[in-house]
Specification:
- The complex is a heterodimer of chains A (about 110) and B (about 120).
- Chain A has no helices and 11 strands.
- Chain A is mostly beta strands.
- In chain A, strands 2, 4, 5, 9, 10 and 11 form a 6-stranded mixed beta sheet that branches. In chain A, strands 1-3-8-7-6 form a 5-stranded antiparallel beta sheet, with no helix packed on it.
- By secondary structure, chain B is mostly beta strands.
- In chain B, the strands form 2 sheets. In chain B, strands 2, 4, 5, 6, 9, 10 and 11 form a 7-stranded mixed beta sheet that branches. In chain B, strands 1-3-8-7 form a 4-stranded antiparallel beta sheet, with no helix packed on it.
- Chain B is globular, with a radius of gyration of 14 Å.
- Chain B starts with a strand and ends with a strand.
- The chains are: A mainly beta (about 110), B mainly beta (about 120).
- Chains A and B meet through strand 4, strand 5, strand 9 and strand 10 of A and strand 4, strand 5, strand 9 and strand 10 of B.
Chain lengths: ~110, ~120
């Protein structure tokens, strides 16, 4: 069935780059998302990439997609303490409408 | 533009009761999806509504239902509450139906506690 996997924890130093990885199984995924969730809050859409793209850059965020390996990554450059949060990878299929499949989330801890 | 709003933000109910949660999408958005978030199961898709019609449904029992009104506001209802229904219920809106946007924006959620 559909599955999205992420590592659960990542710890980095302030100023370093963070790389959060995600693998998915559904080859019909049309678009792939990264969301951020801070304590007690909803999900904030960070960025998304279409399955026919390899890379997308948006300020400090770089998304890389390896469709052959079904691997997605989110790189955060110059990580700040304010980036500490849980990051979710999600996949969507155009034919499934609004249904997104989420990973378990990666808790990013940024140490000063 | 105002974001997605959900009411109430917090709710405490007793097992066996029913509950109704409300979601107002971003102005102009016609699609509303609902998700349940729990520590054990993570984020799971409940259902999606578009132009008052349910377009997709996740694997939840029939106790979970929803509807959408002509102004795109949506409600979800859970009947005969169980302890396991305690969760954060998130609503997302998008202007799906447009060629150019697949972005889904989430509200702050309703925290439901069943005792």
């Amino acid at each position: 069935g559909e599955d999205v996997e992420q590592s659960l924890f990542l710890s980095v130093r302030e100023g370093d780059s963070s790389v959060i990885n995600c693998t998915y199984t559904d080859s019909s995924s049309t678009y792939l998302y990264w969301y951020k969730q801070e304590p007690g809050a909803g999900l904030q859409l960070l960025t998304y990439i279409f399955s026919n793209m390899d890379m997308k850059q948006d300020q400090r965020l770089t998304v890389l997609l390896n469709k052959k390996d079904k691997h997605l990554s989110l790189r955060i450059a110059d990580t700040q303490t304010g980036d500490s949060a849980i990051y979710f990878c999600a996949t969507g299929d155009y034919n499934q409408g609004g249904k997104l499949i989420f990973g378990q989330g990666t808790e990013l801890s940024v140490k000063p | 533009k105002a974001g997605v709003t959900q009411t109430p933000r917090y709710l405490i109910k007793t097992r066996g009761q029913q509950v109704t949660l409300s979601c107002s999408p971003i102005s102009g958005h016609r699609s509303v999806s609902w998700y349940q978030q729990t520590p054990g199961q993570g984020l799971q898709f409940l259902f999606e509504y578009f132009s008052e019609t349910q377009r997709n449904k996740g694997n939840f029992p029939g106790r979970f239902s929803g509807r959408q009104f002509s102004n795109s506001r949506s409600e979800m209802n859970v009947s005969t509450l169980e302890l396991g229904d305690s969760a954060l219920y998130l609503c997302a809106s998008s202007n799906r139906g447009s060629t150019f946007s697949y972005e889904q924006y989430f509200g702050p959620g309703t925290r439901l506690t069943v005792t």
